[in-house]
Amino acid sequence: MSGEGFIKTPKQLIIAGALALVTPVAIAMLGAHLVTGSKRIDPNESPASVEQRIRPIGELVKSEGTAPPPAAAPAVAAVATKPRSGEEVYQLACAACHGAGVAGAPKTGDKAAWAPRIAQGVATLYKHSIEGFKGMPARGGNSSLTDDEVKAAVDYQVAQSK
Ligand code: HEC
Is 98 in the pocket of ligand 1 (CB under 6 A)? Predict the structure, then answer.
C-alpha cells in the first residue's frame, strides 16, 4: 500500500463525494421521522382541534384604560424645566447690552438711568422686556427664555440698580 487514506481512484472519489452529500440528508430525514413519526396528521381532524394545536404560545392582551398611565419621569423633567436664576439669565442674555450701557440701554447699577424706568412699575418693565421696547429686543433677543426667566432677570437688574 502506497499513500494514505481510502480514496485511491476517481471512482472511489465519486462514491465518497456522493456519500458525503447523501448521508447527512438521510440522517436528518431519519431524525425528523423519529421525532414526528408518531404525530401523523389525522385527515379527519376538526378545524377547532387544528386551531388549538397550532395556536401561539403567548398572547398579547391590551388593557383598555384600566392601567394607570406611566408616571412622567419627574427627575428629568425637573432638570429640563428648572428655571435659570435671574443672575444667570442676566449674564446670559442681558449683560451684553446692559452691562456697558450699549445702544442706549440703561446700564445696570446706574441708579439715575433706572429710577424713571423703575417708576413705571415692574409690570411695565416685565412687559417691555418680554415683548421688546424700542432698542430693547424681546427677551433680550433670546427666545429660549421663559417669561419667568426674563422677569427674574428684570428683578435682578432692578435690584442692582436701586
Ligand atoms: C441688544 C441689547 C439689549 C439686550 C441684549 C437687552 N436689552 Fe434691555 N434694553 C436695551 C435698550 C437699548 C433699552 C432701552 C430702550 C429704550 O427705552 O429706548 C433696554 C431697556 C430695558 C428695560 C427698561 C424698559 C423700560 O420700560 O424702560 C428693561 C427692564 C430691560 N431692558 C431688561 C432687559 C433684560 C431682562 C434683558 C435680558 C433678558 C435685556 N434687557 C437684554 C437693550 C438690550
Answer: yes
